[in-house]
Amino acid sequence: MNLFEFHLPTKIYSGNGTFLKTGEYIKEFIQGKRLFIVTDPGLIKWGVVEKLESILQGFETQCFTEVKPNPRDTDCIRGGELAHEFKADGIVALGGGSVIDAAKAIAILQVLGGRPQDYAGRDQVPSAVTPIIAIPTTAGTGAEVTRSSVITDTEKKIKLTIKDVKIAPAVAIVDPELTYELPAPLTASTGMDALVHAVEAFTCKRSNPIAEGLAIEAMKRIYPFLRRAVKDGTDTDARYQLMIGATIAGMAFSHADVAAVHCMAEAIGGLYDTPHGVANSMFLPYIIAFNAEADLKKHAIIGRTLGLATESTPDEVATAALVTEMKQLAQDLAIPTFASLPQVNRADFDDLAESAFQNGSTPSNAREITKEDYLLLFEKAYGA
């Protein structure tokens, strides 16, 4: 039996309307009154930041809105400097995964200085950081409960990952109502991101019984409701299930790992700035087919969990049905293919394969994978 640890330092408040109680929930976690709000311009226009500030009566706030999709190291450095000048007692991350990941890096840099690159890898944060309150506005990354922050190195055009329990949010406020106005493409891509988290948490080498149970539960909540939420954004039941499923998937992979799908997705995200959920969707079927050779039983269990096969269906057939459905699901959700991205250049594939291979999650992949394997998988996804 493999030894494992499971440590979830985040207190979760979940359900419709929890956002409105943010000020009440965070009082026990913040020693002081100065809150540095990390968000993005879209949420300013939507009016949700103004609403948050009104909810946080009794606190002094300052907003940082310079976070971009696939958050940049330069923006995190600037945010850290401003949070330090403000003497923030807490960091409130209001937004999707990019905002929450940036907030984690800002919380480090406010206290410790430097650049995100200084803390990349596992357990490289030497001391406590500013407490983080995470309020997700998408049902996707699960960043509100993870110990990871993925940041783009703007010079090298690669993504780096900080993995340390010290950057896990102290509080996660998971309110499905914040996702009601998400457009269909964003609902689709973030939902697929959450599904990939569950799949990779279940199948990767670093998985464990608790992570596996969470991953299966996440799949049961995400997959049946994803098409519904994309088709009808006012489907409140679908919105609820996706939001809770994404958080559960975040708990699962944070206590296991992701694997080759993310390694490939982060490679093209770093080079082409491709939205993360879109990138994950492009490569998921090809990695499932590749990895099934190493652990056919687990991949077949996923097929059965999603209702694509019965208990009596042979494992090979259940896994083949899973590969087919993941391709069909991305198509139904109007997620672009790898080859359809205008910036993709086959001349980059060798560099992309190297970047994927160097990713810290490559060793966690269910099947041993080389740079040459990654290169073939990029070609296969491109030629599909």
List descriptors.
6-stranded parallel beta sheet, Dehydroquinate synthase-like, alpha domain, ADH_Fe_CS, 3-stranded mixed beta sheet, Rossmann fold, oxidoreductase, 14 helices, 384 residues, 2 domains, alpha/beta, oxidoreductase activity, 11% strand, single chain
List unreliable stretches of 5+ residues.
none
Largest sheet: 6 strands, parallel
Order of helices and strands: EHEHHEHEHEEEEEHHHHHHHHH
Helicity range: 40-55%
Strand content: 5-15%
SS summary, helix count: 14
The Cα radius of gyration reads 20 Å
**CATH topology of the largest domain, what is it called?**
Dehydroquinate synthase-like, alpha domain
Strand order of the largest sheet: 1-9-6-4-2-3
Backbone shape? globular
Please characterize this protein's 3D structure.
One of its GO terms (molecular function) is oxidoreductase activity. It holds the Pfam family Fe-ADH. Keywords: Oxidoreductase. It is a single chain. The chain is α/β, with parallel strands linked by helices and 384 residues long. α4 crosses α5 (97-112) and α6 runs parallel beside α10. It has a six-stranded parallel beta sheet with strand order 1-9-6-4-2-3. It has a three-stranded mixed beta sheet with strand order 5-8-7. β7 and β8 form a beta hairpin. The protein has two domains: 11-179, Rossmann fold; 184-383, Up-down Bundle (Dehydroquinate synthase-like, alpha domain), CATH 1.20.1090.10. The chain has helices spanning 22-26, 41-46, 48-55, 73-86, 97-112, 184-203, 209-231, 236-254, 260-272, 276-291, 296-305, 315-332, 349-358, 371-383, and strands at residues 11-14, 34-38, 60-64, 90-95, 121-122, 132-136, 148-153, 158-163, 171-174.
